[in-house]
Specification:
single chain; two-stranded antiparallel ribbon; about 350 residues; alpha+beta; about 55% helix
Length: about 350
Amino acid sequence: MRRRPGFSVRLRLTLSYAGFLAVAGALLLAVVWGFLLRYVPDNPQGLLGISPNRYLLVRTFAPAAAVAMAFLLVFGLVGGWILAGRMLAPLTRITAAARMAGSGSLSHRIGMEGRQDEFRELADAFDTMLERLESHVAEQQRFAANASHELRTPLAISRTLLDLARRDPPRDKEELFDRLQAVNTRAIALTEALLLLSRSDGGNVTRESVDLSLVAEEAAETLLPLAEQRGITLDVTGGAARTSGSAELLLRMVTNLVQNAIVHNLPAGGAVTVHTESQGDASVVRVENTGHRLPPELVPTLTEPFQRGTERARTDEHAGVGLGLAIVHSIVRAHDGTLDLAPRPVGGLLVTVRLPRVP
């Protein structure tokens, strides 16, 4: 946005300091003039014939007052300019940092030293904003790179299969169609997951009253065949837990949690428990499963996009795209909630979602 040039803040502060000092000096001189000279008689003999008269005092006082006013004006301009420069020096550093950030350099920090005041608070807030912005941009860049890589893989596989079919026409077409369908299904699932993640990250959530206990029952009913196929016991316990948000997104959140709990479980004889309850001003959903022990350093990476980890990577028909918990985390944030992941001492994972409760 182009603006017309104007006086700098430093110059305006300088003029303000000088003007204030000149007005104060003029008032002081006016007080002296009014309360001192008014008692000096205006006659040739002066007071009692021994002191100067008003005419002589005015002739003597006026030049000195003019010199004093000129000195105050110059002193106010010079001193105001120096003081304004010292006061605005932190603002200059903040402006320079903002320009660097605007040009794309997000790694620069102001690092304002000194005691706490308004400028230090502004600098610290700006540094915090830059830190979060840099982290967010880096996360988006990693996400874009990973998404491009994940989407390129099924396309490359499809092209390879088609090239093989073109070079070897007698090849079994049924096998080719099955493999192409599997690759295409995975690509569609990845695309839908990316769209859902983008939607929940955008914060465009339609608010309505939702009972998380009903959502949990619906998700469990949908995934019950998968649990039975794997020999896993699926239980839903607890009571009503109402919150405000998108029923579709909340259902996807619970479904992802339950599906992850089923897929990443013991080979046989495992269990998944979904529990809902109200705690104070929060509605809570807990999803707990059995499984192998998780290294503590692996748990913080579970919600990162495309970060499956060696222990979590699967090669069966339910292999994920590494976005399940990332979508859950995004949906929880869009609903102003919190997500907590804790490894169970005996193996498996305990996932706790807390959302704002509504009556």
